[in-house]
Amino acid sequence: MRQGWQGRFHEDFEIGDVYRHPLGRTVTEADNTWFTLLTMNTNEAHFNAEAGKASEFGRPLVVSTLTIAIAIGQSVTDTTQNAFANLGVDKVKLTHPVFDGDTLFSESLVLRKRDSASRPQAGIVTIKTRTLNQDGDEVLSFERTFYVHKRGADRARGTFPVAKKPLEP
């Protein structure tokens, strides 16, 4: 059996490494409306076309917390697949508006890492993530610090079940 991508463990992170996260995500009007409703954001600039037209942008804005959520999600496969806790999101900067139809791409730079003083099977990593739209405009940046397992940690074991019957051609 060949093992698929299992994500990075603490010892795999090197200060200065940059990970270009592989999946772009086009934001739709439905995404924006649902996320706005889900999070109870009542600012009509995000879900009312007439309010959007009357704004300085001339159309509805994608709610910034959706942009942040997409950026964090895009980074998981490369950064926090083996993490067990986020410790902080800092220095959040929303630098360009995001609109329905924009496609977002994210990349992360490893800033710091250290062993955990209280959890010998884990370490703490800080990354800086930035998100670009399809035109290369930076729309978001932030730093995120998280606990991540070391390779072989008891709690880092996968949850894939043992099959009762082997996979056959």
TrEMBL record:
Domain of life: Bacteria
Gene Ontology molecular function terms on file: lyase activity
InterPro entries according to UniProt: HotDog_dom_sf, MC_hydratase, MCH/BMMD
Gene3D superfamilies on file: Hotdog Thioesterase (3.10.129.10)
PANTHER family listed in its UniProt record: BETA-METHYLMALYL-COA DEHYDRATASE, MONOAMINE OXIDASE-RELATED
This protein's name: MaoC family dehydratase
Organism: Amycolatopsis acidicola
